[in-house]
Amino acid sequence: MQRRPMSPTPRCASARGRRSRSGPCAAKRVLLGQVAVLGAVVLAMLVREFPGLVREVRIWRMIGFTSGARPPQ
Question: What predicted TM-score, i.e. pTM, was given to this entire model?
Fold first, then answer.
């Protein structure tokens, strides 16, 4: 009987059936979880601060805020 050639699989796919939770899959899951939490925190901060940012932009427009240097008066 001939063996079928095995296709290259990522290490996570081969570790799924095992009981052990340590290894590259666990580290990848932890990293993805941390990225998800960090993204949620950044999004929450932007949503919370958005009204204040809109207010600041309105104030800048009212006073004629420009990024360049002003000529002397």
Answer: 0.51
> What distance in Å separates the CA atoms of residue 63 and residue 52, rounded to the nearest whole number?
17
d(CA 44, CA 8): 40
25 C-beta neighbours (distance < 10 Å), count: 18
Closest-CA residue to 45 (of 34, 37, 55): 37
CB 13 within 8 A of CB 26: no
Tens-digit pLDDT profile for residues 40-54: 999 999 999 999 999
What are the sequence ranges of the domains in the chain?
25-67
Phi and psi based region of residue 23 (left: phi greater than 0; alpha: psi -120 to 50; beta: remaining): left
Greatest Cα pair distance, the chain, in angstroms, is 93
Token readout for 50 is: 């958005």
